[in-house]
Amino acid sequence: MLLQKQFFGHESVMMLSKELLYISRSNISTEINKTGSWRFLTPIYQLKSSPCTEKCPLSQDISRIEMLVSKGKFKEAIDLILLENPFPSVCGHVCFHTCETACNRKSFDEPVGIHSIERFLGNIAIAEDYKLNIPIISFNGKNIAILGAGPSGLGAAYFMRILGYNCDVFEIKKEPGGLLRWGIPAYRLPDLVLRKEILRIESLGVKIHCNSKETVDSLKKSGKYDAIFIGCGYGKPVKMGIDGEDLAIDGLEFLYKIRNGENTDIGGHVAVIGGGNSAIDVSRSLIRIGATPIIFYRRRIEDMPAFKEEVEAANVEGVEIRELTKPIRIEKDSEGLVITLNNNNTFKAQHVIKAIGNEAENHWKLLLDSKENFSKFSRTVLVNNHLPIVLGGDLVNPVKSVADAIASGKQAAMVLDSFFNHREVTNSMDIYTGGDRKNRSKHITSIEEINLDYFEFSPRRDSEIEEAKRCFNCGICNDCDNCRIFCPEISVNFKDNKRSINLDYCKGCGICITECPRNAMGLREEA
Amino acid sequence: MRQVLEGSHAVSEAVRLAKVQVVSAYPITPQTHIMEAIAEFCANGKMNAKFICVESEHSAMASVIAASAAGVRTFTATSSHGLALMHELLHWASGARLPIVMAEVNRALAPGWNIWMDQTDSLSQRDTGWIQLYCEDSQEVLDTTLCAFKLAEAINLPVMVVLDAFFLSHTYEPVDVPEQNEVDKFLPPFLPRINIDMSNPCSLYQMAPPNFYMEMRYSIFRAMEETISKFLEVEEDFYKVFGRKYGILDSFQCDDAEIIIIAAGTTASTCRQVVLDLRETGEKVGLIKIKMFRPFPKKLISDALSNAKKIAVIDRNCSFGVGGIFAQEIKSALYKNKNMPTVFGYITGLGGRDVTPKMIEEIYFKTKEEHYPEKESIWFGINYELFRN
Amino acid sequence: MNFSETEDIELMHPGHVGCPGCGAVIAMRLALKAMGEKIVLVIPACCWAVVSGPHPQFALKVPLLHTAFETSGAAASGLRAALDMKGDTETTVVVWAGDGGTFDIGFQSLSGAVERNEDFIYVCYDNEAYMNTGVQRSSSTPYGGQTTTTPELQWKKTRKKNIVESLSGHRISYAATASIAFPEDLIQKFKKAMNLKGCTRFLHVFASCPTGWRIPSELSVKIARLAVQTNIFPLYEVEDGINYTINYTGNKTVKEYLKLQGRFKQLSEKDTYEIQKMVDEDFLFLSQKVKLRR
Questions:
Q1: Which chain A residue has its CA at the smallest distance from B209's CA?
Q2: Best exposed site among A154, A333, A357, B130 by fewest CB in 10 Å?
Q3: What is the CATH number of domain B2-242?
Q4: ipTM confidence score
């Protein structure tokens, strides 16, 4: 009777036995067919690396950061940066952003404006007094001394603290920041930005001792420290090796005076020698104090190592650049200085500022030449004579940049930690501490692996969210859901914000992999 | 209420009284009067039904199949080529076990074009799983149509009510058209066993693989077997309300008959008169009118013919290569009879040619005089002159 | 895109017998998400008549009425009439037919139903040949296509029938093309069709067939997208048979579409050029119609 009712929907009609009325009426779910047995290739979720992250000295998870920003998840994005970089806003202001030169989008239209998004996030963190929300290991009993409160020293302190060490930073100058504080003009890096980001490091319990006279020897003698990090940078200007070189002012010294609020007594025509960011910083600072800078650069303008945007900004501000020229002699005359150039022309100026770079002080060079108990890493050197000492920053970094300096500090933290704990040194703190990125494939996604059907030609946007949406999110999942949308087998499960493949039914058609715009899936052959 | 109606309108009135909900049909002579009248009923509110003016008979059947599967009472009508065009869907309707009722006006198939009476169209659909009921006059048409709904719904098989082209469809006769309340007593509202249920989504008529298909076909076969008794029940119900019944077979003057004429449709009426006339002259002749052709009432036929010596079957149809279709079926029904009568199969009256009382008399005497039929199928009334070069 | 809350329901079961990468299955899944469960499907003979499952199995969670190959338009008419008689105005009748059942054998009943302006949605999922019977040409097979009945150099030398234009000629209230590669557009069009009650609505969905087109299953969606990007299968809508809207203008060459598919592998440069000319001509013609909007 019950069967009849189910079969016909109601009971009141004249009964017919099933033998007399047996029809093809079906309602048993096809779920009983495990079509997964058809499969000979299995799709897997396999996040991969992106070229921007690969190029970033700090190995920031850029494609994921952009993804979070595109969804307005700024806090998560800030956390992700802070996992790898204590200076988002500083870097957003002054980093070379090599990431953008590696961006897969550059051959499609324009690279994503990664650094402006980083600056945006860093500024939000500052404006909202954002509290650090990353896992910090509680104090492990070991004390580290850090010489120099520049980007590498502060970086080392930050990451050492994250790894559980107590850090004392000793700075010879009256304020921390190193080159960031004294070498970069405020119009490029506002004081507040630097101060706030250093404060955040201090908020972890890192102690910064300014006007410090500590040396390696004094620290060793104190017996208080289990290891020392040296990040003292390049304090000694490089020599041009020409007559009258002493008549030239050192660029960093000039910038220091400006940043220290001192009167420089510089005006009129000023010859600036060099083509790097310092030369531009000096020139643009000169404009700001009413002087007329003229840059002399030995190669062509397009060869200048300074940021293109900086060169352009200098141009706009009225800085003259004379390419393919270099001074061969500087002399004094009654009106000021006479510079003789390689083309035998002369140029009259009130002052000459040389900004051709700096080098290490001699005593650091000696330490680096010690060769005993010496281990070399990509950005640091570990010397272990009774007490482990790590040298980092410009002293050993192959590339001298703010991001590289911070990265060197990060590597120092890992080098020292691995000295105590034997773990593998990497570029990423997330990978080092066994975070999610550890499972990511090292394969770097190329533009050929991006499904460009999902992207429209679009030049850079002013809005950071819109700009972040331009990011291909190479190699990572941005929850676009294509794998689930297109699956003909309803075999992509989505639960607790995670996707998984239901292998009971997946026939291995591979559409999910092809339609993943960003190469976040892969294929495994069935055994 | 007694009215003078043509056979077509007797169908239409029955459809109205049966409160059919969806009607779909396509014009073909001589069926058109049926659908025209129904269209008018729908238009003037005498019927609360949807009339779908489809673009072919094929679509007419397709649409009533779908409507019936959705659980409403349905009707369509056709004839000849229209029926042939429906062929595929006739199988579908019975396989789907839908209680669709269709009026089929017996008409010849082309070429050459012929709009007149011939049984081949309906009889060649004998294997489609439809119940087939043949009618003799307009009253029987109306009554059978009403019974058809009840029968179809009782056994979940489609029913074809068959009437002769023009002799019945276009001939006016007095017909007792019952009142609605009486019909309602006989025919309750349709309670479908097969229905599209939104709360229990099923797939109806899903692909049936070999391990299921055969049982579904067996079920149709079994239902056809049950139809004989179901029909009698339905007729009994009808009789209680209206005092009329027709029987699966109508045996007329058969008790002592040595020769029995067998016919269907209006031909039976002519035969009836001839039998009466011959009885006057002392001939021991009877008539069996076959009303139900599918399911074929084998047992009833074999019983009814058990005492006859000879049988004369009048087929207004032909299965080429074999002969008259009624004759074949009757022969097959007699297979187990102890006293096997001799069956004379006459093919006559095709394509609207008259079958006159005189012809039937001749058929009777030919049957009586010949010991054994000269041929398996006797083509009666052929004008051999037409074959002369 | 992401599924909205109402779209994030599955009205289809896994475990169906569709070929790996079947575009018609993707089409059904997306369409069901757009239409929801208040529908009855009418399916004639086609791949989906099989994919929906052999008795007693069923791959869908909405009622389905199977019907004979050529009868969809009529069956849907009858079903609609029955639902109306039962007072069920909430349920939408949706035909789900292949190209053979629509362009060829079912064209008469479709035309009849559209002319009567029957109240249902007719969806043709187009895989451009009789795939269920083993890849024979249909009138939807494109110029240049190989099938088992247009084999080798006897590839189809006539154009694909333009079904949307045919129905526009009936002044159908709403006709639109959609592609499995553009799920957002597809879902939006199905929703639009659902909301337009009381008239016949036609949706022509391009559904790639890896088996019949001889393409790797993983390219199923990509190929469907290329068909749009090359203007071979333009996405557009026609209201009342005269108001045209083009939803996407492609800029890729037909070669990019043709070269990926085994069914076109025999075409020469010249043939490809001819096809490009046809496609350009068709798209220009379509663009001109957009300008005639009322």
A1: A24
A2: A333
A3: 3.40.50.970
A4: 0.96
